């Protein structure tokens, strides 16, 4: 069933678990993540990137699939960077938008997020924003609890992505998370907290973060590598010069790899059985 992040994350915060938000690249890994959620009886959040996906076409397709699912499914436009991206997401039938203005100065970030939140809420959608900055490398700017509280109160967002030491993409070493800061944010900020850059952060780190107030965990890179590894293993198992339907199994193997990573994160986040 369709659900927005407000519905999904309010329950997660109240019962102290986390819900995985999974990076979607195409129909194959969307269906793989959906199957994992249905088998695990877990709510799930599907992340769509503007530019990577044709959001008008794909958004409408994803909405139909989500509506038929037996578990709560949110489809969110991840890191919408322009005003237009949010408007397109509304037209495409997304349940939520993530408005990323984290590179802007605090006041400007707040003003732009506030405007889009008003629009999204009028459409029955949830909104996530980001404060501090989760970088593509090591240059994250940590979130300040006092600012985070004011930001949430003024903008009315439903969830807040915080910077506590993770980064997007792949790491050279396992990152060091700021757990004391996370605890302080959890006690200060009135809405569910989100952690971006879950891939490669380490299961122990993530489990701990999920038990300390992170209610939405974004994972993308690991889904892709899981899919590719699954396909590689399959390809290596084939005899040389094979003649069969094997090429068609490619898609299935990619899906199996992504599904396993998705299912693993549902267990890790504690969302298994919470649908
Ligand atoms: Zn992100």
Structure notes:
This is Class II fructose-bisphosphate aldolase. It comes from Laedolimicola intestinihominis. Its cofactor is Zn(2+). With 275 residues, the chain is α/β, with parallel strands linked by helices. It has helices at residues 5-14, 27-40, 55-68, 83-92, 106-122, 145-155, 179-188, 203-211, 221-237, 246-269, and strands at residues 19-23, 44-49, 73-80, 96-99, 126-131, 159-162, 193-195, 214-219. It has one domain (5-269): Alpha-Beta Barrel (TIM Barrel), CATH 3.20.20.70. It contains ten helices and eight strands. The chain has an eight-stranded parallel barrel, surrounded by ten helices. α3 crosses α4 (83-92). The chain is globular. Bound molecules: zinc ion. Zinc ion is lined by residues 79, 134, 168, 196, 218.
Task: Report the major sheet.
Answer: 8 strands, parallel, barrel
What percent of the residues sit in helical stretches (DSSP H or I)? 40-55%
Low-confidence runs (pLDDT<50, min 5 residues)? none
The structure class reads alpha/beta
CATH architecture: Alpha-Beta Barrel
Number of strands: 8
Mean pLDDT over the full residue set: 92
Helix count, DSSP H or I runs of 4 or more residues: 10
User: Could you give the order of strands across the largest sheet?
Assistant: 1-2-3-4-5-6-7-8
Classify the beta-strand content into a percent band: 15-25%
- General form: globular
CATH class: Alpha Beta
Q: In angstroms, what separates the terminal alpha carbons?
A: 10 Å
Radius of gyration: 18 Å
> What is bound: which ligands?
zinc ion
Query: Which fold name is given in CATH as the topology?
Result: TIM Barrel
The tally of structural domains comes to: 1
CATH superfamily: Aldolase class I
């Amino acid at each position: 069933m369709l659900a927005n992040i407000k519905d999904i994350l309010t329950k997660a915060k109240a019962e102290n678990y986390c819900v995985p938000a999974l990076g979607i690249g195409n129909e194959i890994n969307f269906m793989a993540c959906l199957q994992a959620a249905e088998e695990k009886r877990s709510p799930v959040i599907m992340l769509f990137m503007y530019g990577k996906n044709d959001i008008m076409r794909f958004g409408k397709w994803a909405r139909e699939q989500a509506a038929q699912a037996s578990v709560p499914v949110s489809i969110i436009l991840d890191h919408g960077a322009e005003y237009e991206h949010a408007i397109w997401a509304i037209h495409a039938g997304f349940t939520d938008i993530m408005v990323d203005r984290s590179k802007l100065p605090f006041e400007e970030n707040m003003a732009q997020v506030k405007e889009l939140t008003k629009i999204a809420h009028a459409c029955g959608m949830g909104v996530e924003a980001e404060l501090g900055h989760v970088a593509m490398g090591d240059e994250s700017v940590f979130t300040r609890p006092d600012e985070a509280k004011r930001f949430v109160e003024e903008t009315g967002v439903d969830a807040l992505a915080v910077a506590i030491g993770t980064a997007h993409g792949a790491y050279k070493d396992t990152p060091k998370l700021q757990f004391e800061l996370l605890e302080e944010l959890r006690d200060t900020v009135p809405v569910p907290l989100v952690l971006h850059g879950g891939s490669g952060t380490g299961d122990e780190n993530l489990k701990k973060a999920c038990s300390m107030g992170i209610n939405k965990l974004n994972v993308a890179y690991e889904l892709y590598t899981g899919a590719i590894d699954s396909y590689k293993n399959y390809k290596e198992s084939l005899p040389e010069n094979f003649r069969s339907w094997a090429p068609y199994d490619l898609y299935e193997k990619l899906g199996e790899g992504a599904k396993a990573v998705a299912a693993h994160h549902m267990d890790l986040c504690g969302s298994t059985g919470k649908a």
